[in-house]
Amino acid sequence: MAKTIRFLLSRDDWYHQRGYWVIAKTLRNAGIEVVLGGTQTPEDVVNTAIQEGVDIIGYRIMDAAPKIVVPILLEKMKQEGAQDIPVVVGGIVPKKEEKLIREMGIKEVFHPYSPLESVVERIRGLAAEARKQGVA
Hints:
The chain is of the alpha/beta class and 136 residues long. The chain has helices spanning 18-29, 42-52, 66-79, 95-104, 116-132, and strands at residues 6-11, 33-39, 56-61, 87-91, 108-110. β4 (87-91), α4 and β5 (108-110) form a beta-alpha-beta unit. α2 packs across α3 and α3 packs parallel to α4.
């Protein structure tokens, strides 16, 4: 029997919550276990990911600049030995910053109105890749 994917979903602010909840419900309905982190700093995201033993981290960024927040998140993951957990980002990410954070190691960037089926498919694919590499 396949292990259920555990997905940590966190966000950077209390506002603009609709997408956060839509993604949480979509993933849950697809059989993915969603750990709701709520509003968290990058340090909190890493701590929660480790405590919860998640397979993937999803961080919704609206207020914080991705080019500032993502390096902090990835550095904290490295410090804690969690650098192999795939990270996806959602929200409004300018194209220039999207290229930069992908180069840093972000596995996927989901923009508003990304087709929900493709989000689920990509999350499943990333989890499968991580398991092949012995990460998840």
